[in-house]
Amino acid sequence: MSEKDARFLSEMGAQLAGWKEPAERLRQALAKDELTLYCQPIVALDGGTSFPMAEVLVRLREEEKALLPPGEFLPVFEQYGLMPELDRWVVRHVLRHISRGSRIPRFSINISSQSLADDAFPKAVALELVSTGVSGTALLFEIDEADSLARLEAAVRFANGIRAVGCGLMVDGFGRRSASFLALKALRVDFVKVDGTIVRRLLANTTAETKLRAILRVGEAIGFEVVAEMVEDQDILVRLKALGVAYAQGFGIRQPHPIELIAA
User: Fold this and answer.
1) pLDDT at 9
2) What angle do CA 237, 243, 249 make, to 5 degrees?
3) If pLDDT is split at 50, 70 and 90, which confidence band does 178 have?
Protein backbone atom coordinates (compact mmCIF):
# COMPACT_ATOMS: atom_id res chain seq x y z
CA MET A 1 0.00 0.00 0.00
CA SER A 2 1.29 3.44 -0.90
CA GLU A 3 2.00 6.08 1.73
CA LYS A 4 -0.89 8.13 0.31
CA ASP A 5 -3.30 5.21 0.69
CA ALA A 6 -2.12 4.52 4.23
CA ARG A 7 -2.57 8.16 5.21
CA PHE A 8 -6.06 8.30 3.67
CA LEU A 9 -7.23 5.15 5.45
CA SER A 10 -5.74 6.30 8.72
CA GLU A 11 -7.78 9.47 8.46
CA MET A 12 -10.91 7.41 7.79
CA GLY A 13 -10.75 5.70 11.17
CA ALA A 14 -9.37 2.72 13.02
CA GLN A 15 -11.69 0.13 11.47
CA LEU A 16 -10.51 0.94 7.96
CA ALA A 17 -6.89 1.58 8.78
CA GLY A 18 -6.19 -2.16 8.73
CA TRP A 19 -7.09 -2.49 5.05
CA LYS A 20 -3.88 -3.34 3.18
CA GLU A 21 -5.18 -3.00 -0.40
CA PRO A 22 -8.26 -0.79 -0.17
CA ALA A 23 -9.36 -0.95 -3.83
CA GLU A 24 -9.04 -4.74 -3.87
CA ARG A 25 -10.84 -4.98 -0.51
CA LEU A 26 -13.78 -3.01 -1.87
CA ARG A 27 -13.98 -5.07 -5.06
CA GLN A 28 -13.95 -8.19 -2.89
CA ALA A 29 -16.85 -6.80 -0.84
CA LEU A 30 -18.83 -6.29 -4.04
CA ALA A 31 -17.96 -9.67 -5.54
CA LYS A 32 -18.78 -11.55 -2.33
CA ASP A 33 -21.90 -9.51 -1.51
CA GLU A 34 -20.46 -8.28 1.76
CA LEU A 35 -22.75 -5.27 1.69
CA THR A 36 -26.23 -5.14 3.18
CA LEU A 37 -29.20 -3.14 1.96
CA TYR A 38 -31.22 -1.10 4.42
CA CYS A 39 -34.12 1.16 3.57
CA GLN A 40 -36.00 4.03 5.18
CA PRO A 41 -39.69 4.31 4.18
CA ILE A 42 -41.24 7.48 2.81
CA VAL A 43 -44.86 8.06 3.83
CA ALA A 44 -47.62 9.74 1.82
CA LEU A 45 -49.18 12.54 3.88
CA ASP A 46 -52.61 12.28 2.26
CA GLY A 47 -53.41 9.24 4.40
CA GLY A 48 -53.00 5.47 4.22
CA THR A 49 -50.83 3.16 6.26
CA SER A 50 -48.60 1.64 3.59
CA PHE A 51 -45.35 3.15 2.35
CA PRO A 52 -45.40 4.10 -1.36
CA MET A 53 -41.61 4.25 -1.56
CA ALA A 54 -38.41 3.97 0.45
CA GLU A 55 -34.86 5.23 0.21
CA VAL A 56 -32.18 2.57 -0.13
CA LEU A 57 -29.18 2.74 2.22
CA VAL A 58 -26.06 0.57 2.28
CA ARG A 59 -24.00 -0.94 5.08
CA LEU A 60 -20.72 -2.83 4.80
CA ARG A 61 -20.15 -5.99 6.82
CA GLU A 62 -16.71 -6.06 8.39
CA GLU A 63 -15.03 -8.41 10.86
CA GLU A 64 -17.28 -10.18 13.38
CA LYS A 65 -20.30 -9.11 11.27
CA ALA A 66 -20.05 -5.48 12.38
CA LEU A 67 -21.93 -3.15 10.04
CA LEU A 68 -20.10 -0.03 8.96
CA PRO A 69 -22.32 3.00 8.16
CA PRO A 70 -21.91 4.80 4.81
CA GLY A 71 -19.77 7.56 6.28
CA GLU A 72 -17.13 4.97 7.16
CA PHE A 73 -16.67 3.43 3.71
CA LEU A 74 -18.28 5.53 0.96
CA PRO A 75 -15.39 8.03 0.94
CA VAL A 76 -13.07 5.07 0.26
CA PHE A 77 -15.17 3.99 -2.72
CA GLU A 78 -15.04 7.59 -3.95
CA GLN A 79 -11.29 7.89 -3.39
CA TYR A 80 -10.61 4.89 -5.64
CA GLY A 81 -13.20 5.69 -8.32
CA LEU A 82 -15.38 2.69 -7.48
CA MET A 83 -18.71 4.41 -6.91
CA PRO A 84 -20.18 3.31 -10.29
CA GLU A 85 -19.45 -0.31 -9.36
CA LEU A 86 -21.14 0.18 -5.99
CA ASP A 87 -24.14 1.94 -7.52
CA ARG A 88 -24.60 -0.91 -10.01
CA TRP A 89 -24.36 -3.43 -7.17
CA VAL A 90 -27.14 -1.59 -5.33
CA VAL A 91 -29.37 -1.48 -8.43
CA ARG A 92 -28.85 -5.18 -9.07
CA HIS A 93 -29.68 -6.24 -5.52
CA VAL A 94 -32.66 -3.89 -5.14
CA LEU A 95 -34.15 -5.29 -8.32
CA ARG A 96 -33.57 -8.85 -7.14
CA HIS A 97 -35.39 -7.98 -3.95
CA ILE A 98 -38.33 -6.49 -5.85
CA SER A 99 -38.53 -9.49 -8.18
CA ARG A 100 -39.04 -11.78 -5.17
CA GLY A 101 -41.97 -9.68 -3.98
CA SER A 102 -42.02 -6.39 -2.09
CA ARG A 103 -44.64 -4.59 0.00
CA ILE A 104 -42.98 -1.32 -1.00
CA PRO A 105 -43.48 -0.78 -4.74
CA ARG A 106 -40.79 1.84 -5.38
CA PHE A 107 -37.24 2.44 -4.14
CA SER A 108 -35.04 5.51 -4.45
CA ILE A 109 -31.32 4.96 -4.98
CA ASN A 110 -28.73 7.67 -4.37
CA ILE A 111 -26.45 8.17 -7.36
CA SER A 112 -22.88 9.37 -6.99
CA SER A 113 -21.32 12.10 -9.09
CA GLN A 114 -19.06 9.42 -10.60
CA SER A 115 -22.08 7.47 -11.85
CA LEU A 116 -23.62 10.65 -13.24
CA ALA A 117 -20.64 10.89 -15.57
CA ASP A 118 -20.87 7.20 -16.55
CA ASP A 119 -22.76 7.19 -19.85
CA ALA A 120 -23.05 3.39 -19.72
CA PHE A 121 -24.94 3.44 -16.41
CA PRO A 122 -28.51 3.78 -17.83
CA LYS A 123 -27.84 0.86 -20.19
CA ALA A 124 -26.63 -1.24 -17.24
CA VAL A 125 -29.87 -0.40 -15.41
CA ALA A 126 -31.90 -1.41 -18.49
CA LEU A 127 -30.14 -4.79 -18.65
CA GLU A 128 -30.85 -5.43 -14.96
CA LEU A 129 -34.51 -4.53 -15.45
CA VAL A 130 -34.80 -7.02 -18.31
CA SER A 131 -32.90 -9.68 -16.34
CA THR A 132 -35.19 -9.41 -13.31
CA GLY A 133 -38.43 -8.68 -15.16
CA VAL A 134 -39.04 -5.58 -13.02
CA SER A 135 -40.60 -2.42 -14.44
CA GLY A 136 -38.45 0.70 -14.51
CA THR A 137 -41.17 2.51 -12.56
CA ALA A 138 -39.99 0.60 -9.45
CA LEU A 139 -36.83 2.73 -9.30
CA LEU A 140 -36.16 6.38 -8.55
CA PHE A 141 -32.65 7.77 -8.77
CA GLU A 142 -31.66 10.52 -6.33
CA ILE A 143 -29.20 13.16 -7.50
CA ASP A 144 -27.78 15.55 -4.94
CA GLU A 145 -28.66 19.17 -5.73
CA ALA A 146 -25.01 20.19 -5.55
CA ASP A 147 -24.08 17.56 -8.15
CA SER A 148 -26.96 18.57 -10.41
CA LEU A 149 -25.72 22.18 -10.43
CA ALA A 150 -22.00 21.42 -10.69
CA ARG A 151 -22.46 18.77 -13.41
CA LEU A 152 -25.69 19.86 -15.09
CA GLU A 153 -24.81 18.62 -18.57
CA ALA A 154 -23.88 15.16 -17.28
CA ALA A 155 -26.95 15.13 -15.01
CA VAL A 156 -29.24 15.91 -17.96
CA ARG A 157 -27.71 13.08 -20.02
CA PHE A 158 -28.15 10.73 -17.05
CA ALA A 159 -31.75 11.86 -16.51
CA ASN A 160 -32.63 11.34 -20.18
CA GLY A 161 -31.08 7.87 -20.18
CA ILE A 162 -32.79 6.81 -16.95
CA ARG A 163 -36.14 8.20 -18.06
CA ALA A 164 -35.84 6.28 -21.34
CA VAL A 165 -35.88 2.97 -19.44
CA GLY A 166 -38.89 4.00 -17.36
CA CYS A 167 -37.22 5.09 -14.11
CA GLY A 168 -37.96 8.26 -12.16
CA LEU A 169 -35.75 11.04 -10.87
CA MET A 170 -35.48 12.89 -7.57
CA VAL A 171 -33.23 15.82 -6.59
CA ASP A 172 -32.00 15.42 -3.03
CA GLY A 173 -30.89 18.01 -0.48
CA PHE A 174 -32.79 20.78 -2.20
CA GLY A 175 -32.53 24.23 -0.64
CA ARG A 176 -29.49 23.36 1.47
CA ARG A 177 -27.93 26.56 0.23
CA SER A 178 -29.82 29.02 -1.96
CA ALA A 179 -32.52 27.15 -3.85
CA SER A 180 -32.03 27.14 -7.62
CA PHE A 181 -34.79 25.85 -9.88
CA LEU A 182 -32.64 25.81 -13.04
CA ALA A 183 -31.60 22.19 -12.64
CA LEU A 184 -35.12 21.04 -11.78
CA LYS A 185 -36.49 22.39 -15.06
CA ALA A 186 -33.60 21.01 -17.09
CA LEU A 187 -33.83 17.55 -15.50
CA ARG A 188 -37.65 17.38 -15.49
CA VAL A 189 -37.60 15.75 -12.06
CA ASP A 190 -40.47 13.76 -10.58
CA PHE A 191 -39.68 14.56 -6.94
CA VAL A 192 -37.73 17.13 -4.94
CA LYS A 193 -36.51 16.17 -1.49
CA VAL A 194 -36.34 19.29 0.66
CA ASP A 195 -33.20 19.45 2.76
CA GLY A 196 -33.52 18.62 6.44
CA THR A 197 -32.10 21.99 7.50
CA ILE A 198 -35.32 23.57 6.21
CA VAL A 199 -37.61 20.90 7.65
CA ARG A 200 -36.10 20.93 11.14
CA ARG A 201 -36.46 24.72 11.41
CA LEU A 202 -39.98 24.84 10.01
CA LEU A 203 -41.76 25.63 13.29
CA ALA A 204 -39.24 28.15 14.59
CA ASN A 205 -38.09 30.00 11.50
CA THR A 206 -40.37 31.93 9.13
CA THR A 207 -37.66 31.93 6.46
CA ALA A 208 -37.72 28.14 6.38
CA GLU A 209 -41.49 28.10 5.82
CA THR A 210 -41.23 30.79 3.15
CA LYS A 211 -38.62 28.75 1.32
CA LEU A 212 -40.74 25.60 1.55
CA ARG A 213 -43.82 27.42 0.26
CA ALA A 214 -41.80 28.67 -2.72
CA ILE A 215 -40.64 25.12 -3.52
CA LEU A 216 -44.25 23.90 -3.36
CA ARG A 217 -45.42 26.66 -5.74
CA VAL A 218 -42.72 25.82 -8.25
CA GLY A 219 -43.57 22.15 -7.92
CA GLU A 220 -47.17 22.88 -8.88
CA ALA A 221 -45.99 25.00 -11.82
CA ILE A 222 -43.48 22.60 -13.37
CA GLY A 223 -44.83 19.26 -12.18
CA PHE A 224 -42.85 17.70 -9.37
CA GLU A 225 -43.92 16.49 -5.93
CA VAL A 226 -42.19 17.38 -2.67
CA VAL A 227 -40.66 15.05 -0.09
CA ALA A 228 -39.65 16.46 3.31
CA GLU A 229 -36.67 14.66 4.84
CA MET A 230 -35.43 14.44 8.44
CA VAL A 231 -38.91 14.66 9.96
CA GLU A 232 -38.28 13.99 13.63
CA ASP A 233 -41.48 14.86 15.48
CA GLN A 234 -45.25 14.92 15.03
CA ASP A 235 -45.62 18.71 15.24
CA ILE A 236 -43.49 19.13 12.13
CA LEU A 237 -45.43 16.34 10.42
CA VAL A 238 -48.72 18.15 11.14
CA ARG A 239 -47.32 21.40 9.75
CA LEU A 240 -46.07 19.68 6.59
CA LYS A 241 -49.55 18.28 5.98
CA ALA A 242 -51.11 21.70 6.47
CA LEU A 243 -48.72 23.24 3.93
CA GLY A 244 -49.58 20.58 1.35
CA VAL A 245 -46.34 18.60 1.27
CA ALA A 246 -47.03 15.25 -0.37
CA TYR A 247 -44.44 12.98 1.26
CA ALA A 248 -42.23 12.80 4.34
CA GLN A 249 -39.31 10.75 5.63
CA GLY A 250 -37.39 10.70 8.88
CA PHE A 251 -36.75 9.10 12.25
CA GLY A 252 -40.06 10.52 13.50
CA ILE A 253 -41.80 8.30 10.94
CA ARG A 254 -39.63 5.20 10.64
CA GLN A 255 -35.96 4.46 11.22
CA PRO A 256 -33.89 2.57 8.62
CA HIS A 257 -34.04 -1.23 8.84
CA PRO A 258 -32.78 -4.10 6.69
CA ILE A 259 -34.75 -4.08 3.47
CA GLU A 260 -36.11 -7.59 3.96
CA LEU A 261 -37.63 -6.64 7.34
CA ILE A 262 -39.55 -3.64 6.02
CA ALA A 263 -40.34 -4.45 2.43
CA ALA A 264 -40.55 -8.24 2.19
Assistant:
1) 47
2) 35
3) low
Is the pLDDT at 49 greater than 70? The verdict is no
Using the 8-state DSSP alphabet, how is residue 106 labeled? -
Provide the residue count of the chain. Answer: 264
pLDDT of residue 84: 95
Question: Could you report how far apart the first and last alpha carbons of the chain are, in Å?
Answer: 41
In sequence order, the β-bridge partners of residue 111 are: 143
Specify the pairing of strand 107-111 against strand 168-174: unpaired
CATH architecture of 38-57+83-263: Alpha-Beta Barrel (3.20)
Q: Which residues contact 164 (CB under 8 A, 6 or more apart)?
A: 122
Distance of alpha carbon 99 from alpha carbon 77, whole angstroms? 28
User: Closest Cα partner for 75 from 124, 26, 4?
Assistant: 26
Cα 261 from Cα 98, distance rounded (Å):
13
For residue range 249-258, list pLDDT tens digits in order: 999 999 999 9
Furthest CA-CA distance within the chain: 56
CA dist 10 and 217 (Å) reads 47
Q: Which one, of 46, 55, 106, lies nearest residue 250 by Cα?
A: 55
pLDDT per residue over 69-87, tens digit each? Answer: 778 888 889 999 999 999 9
Q: 172: which strand partners?
A: 144
